[in-house]
Amino acid sequence: MGARLAARLAARRTCAVLLLAASLGLVGCGANDSSSGDAARADSKPALREGDKAAGSGYAADKPEGEPAGGAAREDAAGPSAPPTEHIIRTAELGVEVKDAAKALANARAVVEKAGGRVENETTERLDDTHVTSHVVLRVPQDEYGAVLAELAGAGKLLSRKADAKDVTDQVVDVESRIATQRASVARVRELMERATRLSDVVALEGQLSTRQAELESLLARQASLKDRTTLATITLTLNEAETEDAREDDDPGFLDALGGGWDALVATLRWITVAIGAVAPFAAMLGLLYAGWRWLVRPLLRPRPGPAPAAEVTSPPAAED
Question: What does 183-200 look like in DSSP terms, one character per residue?
Answer without folding.
Answer: HHHHHHHHHHHHH--SHH
